[in-house]
Design a protein that fits this description.
350 residues; mainly alpha; 56% helix
């Protein structure tokens, strides 16, 4: 999708949604021109890395849309993340260089959406299938916003309903589609999915978002970082980045929780070849780059070049990146980070 078209789509959805903070674009909170960012920050070396990474992902897709054959084979989260990486390059389902690959991603996820709305290929599910559901719903919501396909709307509506009904009493979500305990990591997946769905015109109760904001804020420690669960625990980089993005996605932009969280994250500014020393590297930077993108100004200006150079240096000759999960996951995450200045995906737009 051309950048100006996706931008018009996102702004139109935001206006249609109303004036509450949850549906605000947050455009006033950045001094960085996205078009200028892409021109200046995506270097020739970065562009080459992106093209190789996209080609690698395309080659790893199976005929029915799933990804494999190693690691989390046929996992719905990996499929959704790979799809978003392709969409970030400008393609949409059925259109562009990766249009057919994206069409197959949508087909696979819809085929694995159960009657209750749960998006899950059970044999390929990890220990936390609500991660997969959240990422899959996020991807499908953005596809629906571009296509208005009725079959997609029906299944997406059920997927959103499942998220709303499985929120626990504290305001968060956990590994299983049950309103029991919760953690910050799964919670941000669901909040981003809800934001994308509402941007696409689907109903999301304000009460659900208000409760999620309260949960995330209760998860913040005195040092500005976020603990895994509100029952206690230390701060850590990946979950702290996720906590900030959960607040941004819920429409919280100007808040001391954001300021303190960003200050904490700056301790982890990439300084070259830190992948082996950072737990959940790709997950953490997927959220950290979004946090810095929304924060703008010096946060964005310092973080993106640093993580860009670290990622391009770590790319393998075949075009992929390596993680303990699987290369398709790592590659999709790396591509989402590197392509953020394109400002193409509606969910990432300011």
């Amino acid at each position: 999708m051309p950048k100006n078209l996706s931008r018009r789509y996102f702004l139109a959805c935001s206006v249609a949604a109303g004036s509450s903070s949850f549906f605000s674009t947050g455009l006033a909170f950045s001094a960085v021109d996205p078009e200028k960012s892409a021109t200046e920050l995506i270097t020739a070396r970065t562009d080459q890395a992106i093209r190789k990474g996209l080609q690698y992902l395309a080659a790893r897709q199976e005929k029915d849309g799933a990804f494999g054959p190693s690691g989390y084979r046929r996992n719905v989260a990996v499929c959704a993340l790979a799809g978003m990486a392709m969409m970030a390059s400008g393609s949409t389902p059925g259109r562009g260089p990766y249009g057919e690959h994206l069409r197959r991603c949508v087909s696979y996820l819809l085929a694995n959406t159960h009657d209750n709305g749960f998006v899950c290929d059970a044999p390929a599910s990890s220990h936390g299938p609500m991660y997969g559901h959240g990422f899959a719903t996020l991807f499908l919501a953005q596809c629906y916003g571009m296509s208005q396909n009725e079959e997609l709307r029906k299944k997406l509506t059920a997927a959103i309903r499942l998220i709303v009904t499985t929120q626990n009493s504290e305001g968060g979500w956990r590994y299983q589609p049950q309103p029991t305990d919760a953690d910050i990591s799964v919670t941000v997946c669901e909040v981003m999915a809800l934001r994308a769905a509402r941007n696409a015109g689907l109903h999301v109760p304000n009460e659900t978002i208000d409760k999620s904001i309260a949960y995330v804020k209760k998860s913040q420690n005195a040092d500005g970082g976020f603990r895994y669960m509100i029952t206690g625990g230390p701060s850590a980089f990946p979950r702290s980045a996720a906590g900030i993005v959960a607040l941004y996605s819920a429409g919280v932009y100007d808040d001391t929780a954001i300021t303190r969280g960003l200050k904490y994250l700056l301790r982890y500014l990439p300084r070259g070849r830190q992948m082996g020393r950072t737990s959940h590297y790709f997950y953490g930077h997927y959220y950290a780059i979004q946090a810095m993108w929304h924060a703008g100004e010096h946060y964005w200006a310092s973080w993106y070049p640093a993580v860009r150079d670290e990622l391009t240096a770590a790319q393998q000759r075949e075009g992929h990146w390596i993680s303990s999960i699987c290369p398709e996951y790592a590659t999709a995450m790396a591509l989402l980070i590197l392509q953020l200045p394109n400002n193409t995906l509606p969910i990432f737009q300011r």
